[in-house]
């Protein structure tokens, strides 16, 4: 009898477990995918590029027209779109205008707006990063380019629906470091090119940071050391623009900085660390912007109450359109060079098939001024060979170098990988590779 009762109890437990699984609901983290967007950039020639990720902000229950991303995600492009479903033939996305950004890219933040609010996304609640604790679980949500490679027909379609959002998990390694004179959360959450531009979230679905940078070695391998700038900068910018947004119930809106124009919401500018990205590689490693194919986290509040900052809505920008269908092929694997130091510092150059760099304007696509130290008239060349980009020194006087000090042999092509830095003759003429 006892065995029979035990068997019945076991069967009941199994039935209950299957029932629970069958009726399991989404978590705040998985529901946060409703607020994440892929961002596409369009250059002056009409070519499209998967640039990064972003997330929606606003009032719960209302349509969305405002998005947050990194400035470096949108900087190289003449037009920017948020994607409704996927990029490719028949795909639909919406042109956005820039409400606010910072020319200095400090903070590396941009607020975007579309003309006609839509209900395709859910606005995500924001929480001051000052509430974080070391070892706290956090999640990154976005559209890393490496995940696109796993999709069939990745060259024709770039999947961009809620179900296509990639989720990675980690912990808060340090609650605050200074990166580019900006308060930044250090995490071990895995992010890659394409994740840039949106928030890091807690397990309760609150956005606390915007994934921006990561550490990679010269071979492109990651170290689990990544940075997300404080979402407090976005909160302050939204306040300044008069845009409504939701916050975590325990985070008073008054705790956000008075102005997002300040360089850091919680630390003095005096004694702030210099931007790591400006420094030479340390031990064969370097900070890289995870954009060009950028980083995003999004959070959505499930259930509970939210606080809402009520402000008069800022007027829409002039370059906004209603949803439109686009059939231009996206170039999700194109290269972008970002100036790290020298005359092109903080400037980005999308590279389609190749470019020559030097001082001769008749032969070079990226032209240095005549007084640039160490740069020859025809110095080096970037070329696309199949799906691989290479760099070749063209017999320059002072040489072309990777940041680990390795000098390129003249007229020999070397492969370029995401995150690599190289310089022309002098470390003051440094570029970084973004893919």
User: Which band does the percent of strand residues land in?
Assistant: 35-45%
Assign the structural class, choosing from mainly alpha, mainly beta, alpha/beta, alpha+beta, or little secondary structure.
mainly beta
- Give the N-to-C terminal Cα separation: 68 Å
- CATH C-level class of the largest domain is Mainly Beta
User: In CATH terms, what is the fold-level topology of the largest domain?
Assistant: Thrombin, subunit H
What's the β-strand tally?
Answer: 28
The strand line-up of the biggest sheet is 1-2-3-7-6-4
The oligomeric status of these chains comes to single chain
Largest sheet: 6 strands, antiparallel, barrel
CATH architecture of the largest domain: Beta Barrel
Radius of gyration: 23 Å
Q: What are the low-pLDDT stretches, counting only 5+ consecutive residues below 50?
A: 1-11, 13-23, 251-333
Estimate the global geometry from the Cα principal axes.
globular
Number of helices: 5
- Total discrete domains: 2
Overall mean pLDDT? 74
Tell me the helix content: under 10%
């Amino acid at each position: 009898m006892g065995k029979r009762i035990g068997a019945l109890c076991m069967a009941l437990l199994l039935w209950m477990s299957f029932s629970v699984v069958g009726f399991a609901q989404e978590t705040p983290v998985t529901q946060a995918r409703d607020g994440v967007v892929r961002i596409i950039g369009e250059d002056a020639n009409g070519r499209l590029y998967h640039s990064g990720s972003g997330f929606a902000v606003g009032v719960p229950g209302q349509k969305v027209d405002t998005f947050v991303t990194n400035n470096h995600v949108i900087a190289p492009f003449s037009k920017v779109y948020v994607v409704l479903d996927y990029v490719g033939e028949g795909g639909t996305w919406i042109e956005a205008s820039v409400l606010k950004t910072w020319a200095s890219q400090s903070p590396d933040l941009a607020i975007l707006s579309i003309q006609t609010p839509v209900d395709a996304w859910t606005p995500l609640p924001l929480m001051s990063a000052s509430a974080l604790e070391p070892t706290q679980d956090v999640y990154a949500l976005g559209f890393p380019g490496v995940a696109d490679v796993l999709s069939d027909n990745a060259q024709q379609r770039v999947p961009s629906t809620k179900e296509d959002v990639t989720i990675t998990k980690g912990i808060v390694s340090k609650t605050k470091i200074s990166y580019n004179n900006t308060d930044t959360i250090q995490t071990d959450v895995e992010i890659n090119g394409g994740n840039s531009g949106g928030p890091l979230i807690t397990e309760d679905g609150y956005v606390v940071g915007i994934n921006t940078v990561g550490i990679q070695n010269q071979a492109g391998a990651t170290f689990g050391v990544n940075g997300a700038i404080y979402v407090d900068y976005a909160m302050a910018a939204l306040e300044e623009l008069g845009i409504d947004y939701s916050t975590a119930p325990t985070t008073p809106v008054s705790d956000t900085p008075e102005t997002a124009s300040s360089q850091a919401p919680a630390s003095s500018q005096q004694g702030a660390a210099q931007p790591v990205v400006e420094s030479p590689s340390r031990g064969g490693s370097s900070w890289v912007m995870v954009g060009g194919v950028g980083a995003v986290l999004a959070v959505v509040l499930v259930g509970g109450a939210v606080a809402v900052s009520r402000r008069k809505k800022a007027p829409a920008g002039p370059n906004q359109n209603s949803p439109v269908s686009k059939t231009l092929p996206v170039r999700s694997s194109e290269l972008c060079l970002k100036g790290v130091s020298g005359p092109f510092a903080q400037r980005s150059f999308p590279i389609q098939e190749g470019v020559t760099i030097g001082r001769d304007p008749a032969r070079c696509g990226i032209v240095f001024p005549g007084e640039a130290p160490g740069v020859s008239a025809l110095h080096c060349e970037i070329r696309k060979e199949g799906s691989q980009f290479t760099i070749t020194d063209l017999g320059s006087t002072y040489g072309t170098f990777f940041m680990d000090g390795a000098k390129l042999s003249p007229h020999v092509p070397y492969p370029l990988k995401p995150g690599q830095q190289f310089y022309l003759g002098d470390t003051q003429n440094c570029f970084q590779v973004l893919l």
